[in-house]
Design brief:
By secondary structure, the chain is an alpha+beta fold. The chain has 4 helices and 9 strands. The strands form 2 sheets. A 7-stranded antiparallel β-sheet has the order 1-8-9-2-7-5-4. A two-stranded antiparallel ribbon has the order 3-6.
Length: about 160
């Protein structure tokens, strides 16, 4: 599973725009894919200002194309007449092979495509990381919370006695 690398001084363009923190809590992420996004100029300017939200959004394969649905990008005030719709569907750019894998996962295996993080990469291009995930049941969430609590207690004990 590829991880989005942390910002460093050597990459001045790298910047996380929006993050879906609940994705790992609500879903068991099995794989992730980096996608490009087709944006309008005012959307890019707005993203550079930091106005976006992907928490309520999802991705869907429709008619052989991948779409980001219900993502929010704040309006760019200086764009007056050439602005953009805040919650429009945005086309995501992936290879045909990746698209076929996503379609297979969603249609046959019952998986969900969850946006995890939107960022500008080291070249300054807007990208989004889509997780191929399966929804967690309530008991799975409880097990994960118990594991987290146990690891916290264990680390405290080791710190106190070590």
């Amino acid at each position: 599973m590829a991880q989005v690398k942390l910002s460093s001084k050597s990459d001045p363009n790298y910047k996380v725009i929006a993050e879906n923190r609940r994705a790992r809590f609500d879903y068991a992420i099995e794989d992730d894919v980096e996608c490009g996004i087709m944006l309008e100029g005012s959307e890019v300017k707005s993203l550079r200002m930091g106005g976006s939200n992907i928490a309520e959004s999802y991705a869907a394969v429709e008619d052989g194309e991948l779409w980001l649905v219900n993502s929010y990008i704040a309006p760019y005030k200086q764009a007056k007449t050439f602005g953009h719709e805040e919650r429009r569907r945005r086309k995501l750019l992936v290879s045909r092979k990746q698209l076929a894998e996503m379609w297979n996962a969603t249609q046959r295996k019952g998986m969900t495509l969850v946006p995890m993080v939107m960022y500008f990469n080291h070249r300054g291009m807007a990208k989004i990381k889509i997780g191929i995930a399966k929804g967690k049941k309530l008991h799975d969430k409880r097990e994960d919370a118990a594991k987290r609590d146990w690891s916290r207690q264990k680390s405290r004990l080791l710190k106190d006695h070590g």
